[in-house]
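Postdoc handover notes: sequence design on the structure in folder B. Input tokens:
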């Protein structure tokens, strides 16, 4: 029985890489006779004209967005569009720039045959970035683990069954970060080892500030866990400060022991810590409840707010 796979690719001003990717995908998938592929390109408000300069080996749809909204949001809109408009068995998500390699996409497809029902992520065993990028990425993973209690070691290169997609598009968290939203959803997932490819053309648009915002977006998915941990931490600081203050006051009031001159400095410092901890707990609660009261962007309901024309190219 033939399997229908939709390949979802976000795109921003990278038409040359897209054309190269289409050629490489045709080579990588040439022996898969039991599969039928369709490509959905989400054009994330590109300011350059998009021209496909290669033969369209697969049916291609280009979903144009009304404005640039960012990589993660473009992906969530693409997933919602697929749910509503495209019949398929699996969805393969990959970037167009060549860093997600077509040969690894083939490995994801083959792995999906043996792990039916799982969302399968590509975990990169090697990276080509400079030292500062690797350092920041390591700090991001450590911070994510510390703040949320969860481990994340993958990005958006993945394959998922349509059943998982149908559930995922009801999670507002994928609007901020797709991989984080999948972790939050509790859907079954696994990983395979891959390697980062070489960019086909141009320069990467991922700079430090965008990477920082991406990391914060992933962490924000677990806001309720972070809020609870911050509250526990602030309460511990308040309890510790009160203990030190009351101990010093007790020694001074109920005993005849000599009090060193630095005691007043310690009490003042503990009082400052107490007040700051109290302020931290109050701000954390207000921010959390404020975010909960805001209207959530649920992709399956609201994705059309950003979509424009759809172009179709057939093989």
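Designed sequence:
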């Amino acid at each position: 029985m033939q399997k229908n796979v939709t390949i979802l690719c976000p795109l921003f001003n990278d038409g040359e890489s897209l054309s190269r990717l289409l050629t490489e995908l045709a080579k990588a998938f040439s022996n898969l006779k039991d599969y039928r592929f369709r490509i959905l390109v989400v054009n994330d408000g590109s300011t350059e004209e998009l021209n496909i300069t290669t033969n369209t080996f697969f049916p291609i749809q280009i979903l144009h967005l009304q404005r640039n909204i960012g990589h993660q949001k473009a992906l969530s809109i693409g997933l919602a569009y697929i749910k509503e408009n495209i019949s398929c068995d699996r969805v393969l998500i990959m970037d167009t720039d060549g860093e997600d390699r077509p040969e690894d996409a083939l490995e994801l497809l083959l792995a999906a045959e043996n792990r039916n029902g799982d969302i399968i992520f590509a975990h990169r065993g090697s990276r080509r970035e400079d030292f500062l990028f690797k350092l920041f990425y390591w700090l991001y993973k450590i911070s994510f683990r510390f703040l949320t209690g969860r481990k994340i070691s993958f990005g958006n290169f993945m394959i998922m069954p349509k059943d998982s997609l149908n559930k995922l598009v009801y999670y507002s968290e994928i609007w901020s970060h797709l991989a984080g939203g999948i972790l939050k959803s509790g859907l079954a997932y696994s990983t395979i080892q891959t390697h980062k490819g070489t960019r086909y053309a141009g320069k990467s648009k991922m700079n430090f500030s965008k990477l920082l915002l991406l990391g914060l977006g992933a962490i924000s998915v677990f806001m309720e866990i972070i809020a609870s941990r911050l509250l526990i931490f602030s309460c511990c600081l308040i309890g510790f400060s009160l203990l030190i203050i009351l101990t010093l006051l007790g020694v001074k009031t109920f005993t005849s022991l000599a009090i060193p001159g630095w005691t007043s400095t310690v009490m003042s410092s503990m009082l400052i810590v107490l007040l700051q901890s109290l302020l931290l707990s109050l701000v954390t609660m207000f921010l959390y409840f404020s975010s909960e009261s805001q209207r959530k962007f649920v992709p399956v309901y609201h994705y059309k707010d950003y979509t424009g024309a759809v172009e179709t190219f057939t093989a």
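Context for whoever picks this up: The chain is about 50% helix and 15% strand. Don't rerun without checking with the PI first.
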